[in-house]
């Protein structure tokens, strides 16, 4: 039985393990204050005051096909959009609330347009759904760890019927998995303290999700230990920290494995600046080089990278983000062979960089800080042929190389890793 279950999960996640690279999109009313998606909680904004953003919301430049093209050009194979974030605003035409995009000046079902556009560009599609809901009257407020009214005396003693909220939450998940066609990923977020597992009626929720869309990948954030429902690990689980945003530090060399040592699909999600939701003043963008390094790091440990963009109130992805995506895309055009369908190598991580591997093809990612000869320790006798992905030029494999010996353009313009393809002998 366990093996059967395992093969079910393997079937569900095989496309995901090949895809390796996706776009995360955090978008909603919080794009108007433009101070990140937690603005209501951080600034203790009452829902009545936040209402002005609902009344104003009208993303006149929302063109999801442009978003989809940018993702595709960057080499991304899937995308996950916030259908509802913690503020409770729904980007889809839910019949369970009027707090939704179709009731704003926009008058549009933003989720449906997103799904249509990204599917049209050939990408897999996922929806992020917040378990937290700071708008719903039956979600705990006073004394909650995160609610905007958590320390507002007026909310003390206010009774809430949490089961009403659960009925609403489960009902919305049912709407998303019934009215919007095939969804490839359902990205729940997040569990904390006792707001975890069966508090959400997670077993019942997962059974309903599986009955509606048996193929769907579910992340592991329905419980604070990251165990419930997770086809994939996306952080928020012990002993790792949330988001896995620093896979270099958080994820061990062997990746994430089960008790038998079998690899478990996992995904790091990272912001391009320091905010998930649009933040106009946050210009601390990561360079294309850092993004590529994180992608290589994840793949070298059997993981995926979900890279976030936070569109603004007009519905535009910030130009800084588009520029980074475009440059990452240039690198992917040349080197995606060392990313897609690749994973952890049979060989231990070399001191000068990372290996990724796909079957009998080994890819050596050389980080330019490496000094001295590139010594393919332990490989010398086993490699038949080495060549640069850049131009297919052959590399002698009988001796170590100095990085300086590589052709000048062996490194892309971010002085990024050169890549070798090593067709390894069958016995590998
Ligand atoms: O609180 C959210 C946050 O806003 C964002 O959605 C991230 C994405 O992984 N998840 C939670 C914090 O980890």
Q: Would you summarize the structure shown here?
A:
The chain has 428 residues and is an alpha/beta fold.
Task: Report on the architecture of this protein.
The protein has 428 residues and is an alpha/beta fold. It is built from ten helices and 14 strands. The strands form three sheets. A seven-stranded parallel sheet has the order 5-4-3-2-1-7-6, with helices on both faces. The chain has a five-stranded antiparallel sheet with strand order 8-9-14-11-12. Helix 9 (288-300) links the parallel strand 6 (266-270) and strand 7. The radius of gyration is 23 Å and the shape is globular. It starts with a helix and ends in a 5-residue tail after the last strand. Mean pLDDT is 87; it is low at 410-428. Bound molecules: ligand FHN. Residues 37-38, 189-190, 242-243, 269, 276 line the site of ligand FHN.
Question: How are the secondary structure elements laid out?
Answer:
Blueprint: H1 2-19, E1 21-25, H2 39-42, H3 47-56, H4 64-73, E2 78-84, H5 110-120, E3 124-130, H6 162-179, E4 185-189, H7 202-212, E5 217-218, H8 247-250, E6 266-270, H9 288-300, E7 303-309, H10 319-335, E8 353-358, E9 361-366, E10 373-374, E11 386-388, E12 394-395, E13 401-402, E14 419-423
Helix pairs in contact: 4-5, 4-10, 6-7, 9-10
Residues 37-38, 189-190, 242-243, 269, 276 line the site of ligand FHN.
Pfam family, one: Alpha_L_fucos
Organism: Neobacillus cucumis
Domain Glycoside hydrolase family 29 N-terminal: 8-337
């Amino acid at each position: 039985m366990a093996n059967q279950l395992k093969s079910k999960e393997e079937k569900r996640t095989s496309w995901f393990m090949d895809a390796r690279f996706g776009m995360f999109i955090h978008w909603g009313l919080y794009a108007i204050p433009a101070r990140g998606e937690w603005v209501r909680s951080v600034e203790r904004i009452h829902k009545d005051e936040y209402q002005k953003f609902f009344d104003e919301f009208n993303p006149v430049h929302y063109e999801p096909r442009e978003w989809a093209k940018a993702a595709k050009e960057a080499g991304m194979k899937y995308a996950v959009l916030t259908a509802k974030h913690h503020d409770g605003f729904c980007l889809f035409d839910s019949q369970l609330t009027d707090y939704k995009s179709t009731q704003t000046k926009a008058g549009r079902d933003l989720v449906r347009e997103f799904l249509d556009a990204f599917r049209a560009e050939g990408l897999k599609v996922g929806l992020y759904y917040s378990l937290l809901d700071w708008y719903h009257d039956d979600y705990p407020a006073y004394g909650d760890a995160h609610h905007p009214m958590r320390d507002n005396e007026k909310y003390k003693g206010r009774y809430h019927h949490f089961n009403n909220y659960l009925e609403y939450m489960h009902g919305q998940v049912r709407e998303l998995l019934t009215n919007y066609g095939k969804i490839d990923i359902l990205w729940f977020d997040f569990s904390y303290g006792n707001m975890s597992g069966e508090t959400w009626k997670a077993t019942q929720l997962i059974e309903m999700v599986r009955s509606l869309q048996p193929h769907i990948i579910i992340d592991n954030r329905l419980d604070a230990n990251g165990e419930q429902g997770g086809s994939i690990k996306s952080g928020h689980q012990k002993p790792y920290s949330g988001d896995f945003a620093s896979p270099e530090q958080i994820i061990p060399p062997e990746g994430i494995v089960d008790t038998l040592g079998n690899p478990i699909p996992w995904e790091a999600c990272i912001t391009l600046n320091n905010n998930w939701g649009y933040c106009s003043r946050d210009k601390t963008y990561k360079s294309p080089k850092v993004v590529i390094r994180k992608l290589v790091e994840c793949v070298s440990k059997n993981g995926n990278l979900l890279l976030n963009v936070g569109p603004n109130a007009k519905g535009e992805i910030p130009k800084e983000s588009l520029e980074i995506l475009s440059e990452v895309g240039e690198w992917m055009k040349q080197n995606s062979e060392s990313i897609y369908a690749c994973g952890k190598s049979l060989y231990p991580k070399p001191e000068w960089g990372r290996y990724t591997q796909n079957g009998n093809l080994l890819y050596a990612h050389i980080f330019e800080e490496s000094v001295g000869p590139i010594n393919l320790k332990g490989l010398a006798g086993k490699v038949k042929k080495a060549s640069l992905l850049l131009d297919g030029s052959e590399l002698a494999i009988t001796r170590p190389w100095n990085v300086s010996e590589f052709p000048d353009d062996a490194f892309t313009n971010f002085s990024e890793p050169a890549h070798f393809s090593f067709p390894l002998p069958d016995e590998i």
